[in-house]
What does this fold into?
Amino acid sequence: MPERVFLASRNAKKVAEMQRILAEHVPGVLVVGLDDVPDYDEPVEDAPDFAGNALLKARAGWAATGLPTVADDSGLCVDALNSMPGVLSARWSGPPKDDDRNNRLLLDQLVDVPEERRGAHFECAVAFVAGERELVVTGQMKGRVIRECRGSGGFGYDVLFVPDDQAGTLTSAEMDSATKDAISHRGRALRALAPQIAPVLGA
Ligand code: IMP
It folds into this structure.
């Protein structure tokens, strides 16, 4: 039986990304997602920060599945909005979650903010829980919020965000996924986590 790790997410792209990164450190590992385990009550993400939300999701996953569990939480922190939307990123313009409506609201809120104060960063916390062992790592992607939507890749606020890396011209929605993974908050956090949990997974 391969060593199984549970990623508490229904996002198939996140499961595949975690599988690629973890397999470099734990050969033969199999990452399974929420769709691969019996349903359980997922916790309300009501912690005040990304690390707290990632940890409560990972603890719930471990309790429900008994598998070493990884969970992430992420969002966009805008300097001119005192680091909001932050943990409220997914539903910034109210429920139900709607990326286009969120992006329009963000553009409106920043309409009077000049170029030099449009700095922002994506942040991601990734938590690992296996019984008593608990670990949280974070990753960031710095950049700025532009004034119009550009690009068709990615998701969420990618169409409005130009990372400082990659010459600082393309939005993260204009990059292919491998280029974004290499510089993204989530890619950075996962790559920091993998070598730390490898020994726990028997590698
Ligand atoms: P989640 O933690 O992956 O569920 O992301 C929460 C919310 O943060 C998403 O719904 C997006 O609004 C925003 N977000 C997180 N990561 C990204 C990203 O890489 N690109 C664009 N938006 C993101």
